[in-house]
Amino acid sequence: SIWSVQVVSKWASPDMFAIALLYTLLRSVSIPPILESLAVLDLGFTCYNIFCAASVISTLAVRLPPDPYHRPEESAASVNSKAVLPQKLAAFGCLAGIVLWTL
Description:
Elements: H1 2-29, H2 43-61, H3 81-102
Helix pairs in contact: 1-2
């Protein structure tokens, strides 16, 4: 379903940040005579970042179909999705900036 694709696409992004943090950790651990570590983020990490960003952005554009069992009088105040989209894009931009800064 559309909902499951949206959930899965959002779970790919934490892996990207975990890899960036692990890279930073391994890069700072290198003590040449005792412990040497070689940490290199190559083309694969760049492609994975592009995939994560494109996946999240594209699933944000897909709307869920209306629920046939939904009754408008029972719902609380609904949030306008168009008002939330700039906040999501700003948060994504901040996180992408952090990843690019760690490179």
